[in-house]
């Protein structure tokens, strides 16, 4: 009689990952807790297959390929009518071709940017006892967690602090070590978000207030990612390949590389620039623009240096219950450009997003 295979079934492997993550979660210490414990090898449930890590080649020598030069847009002369049109055109091109761009001279003081990242660092480097009271999943004004969704393709090397900042801020619930600077940064990023939304509206050929008027900036939340130095960065990822479930994101990051965007079949590094902010188009803006603007796949590599830190401000409306239906903007439609999507509520979209197959399949097409 042939011997029974001793190899675990895929279901058993997934169960093992879930149990291992549950054990980690029960500590409420996150990835930083593993680092504090002095591990020098990755626990196996962090392993990501080479096929996933190397699903596309990485573009190198970007200066030799003009089609792969990451868009950087200077907002300094945004109020100058002679320069404004050119800025809108650059944003239109970047939103169509990349779904990503960086902005400089955006008006947020560099000291505020620095202190916001310092707040992320202070929270994550507190003793476990100070952080564990915030450890939670699901909804809530403040949540601290490791990997929001369990990924069958691997578990990311990062911890996250999420804070709802609008429309109903709850400063009394924010961690005291970062409360004041989060409130200060929130005031600045709200103003910038409305400026960006106006430019995006113009880039679509709409009235500058159009996207704001339909609710694209009604709510926003901070998602603060903390990536400690990884002992085996070639065997995992910091953040799996994904697209953002919002209208657009304003990202602040420190000077450690890792963020990549998928462009024309290649992973392209998003260069950290002192004082710059990265803007990316989310699924919901791709939907309302009827594919005029693209929500791009992106990911974060694990690094053997760190911590890498970022503060992403996601502009969306899912932070308050609503049955409002979003679909392609009527002014953008014509017999030659019919609607590509049916209207949907944000809750229905998110229900699909959290159960999607992932790895490049757009939720909007499901």
TrEMBL record:
User: Any idea which GO molecular function terms this record carries?
Assistant: dioxygenase activity; metal ion binding
Q: Which PROSITE patterns match?
A: FE2OG_OXY
Pfam families the UniProt entry points to = 2OG-FeII_Oxy, DIOX_N
Q: Which UniProt keywords apply?
A: Iron, Metal-binding, Oxidoreductase
Q: Report if keyword Metal-binding is assigned.
A: yes
What InterPro entries does this protein map onto?
Answer: DIOX_N, IPNS-like_FE2OG_OXY, IPNS-like_sf, Oxoglu/Fe-dep_dioxygenase_dom
Task: Look up the record and name the cofactor or cofactors this protein needs.
Answer: Fe cation
Q: Where is the Fe2OG dioxygenase domain?
A: 217-321
Xref: PANTHER family = FE2OG DIOXYGENASE DOMAIN-CONTAINING PROTEIN (PTHR10209:SF123), OXIDOREDUCTASE, 2OG-FE II OXYGENASE FAMILY PROTEIN (PTHR10209)
The family note in this entry says: Belongs to the iron/ascorbate-dependent oxidoreductase family.
Q: What is this protein called?
A: Fe2OG dioxygenase domain-containing protein
The species is: Hibiscus trionum (Flower of an hour)
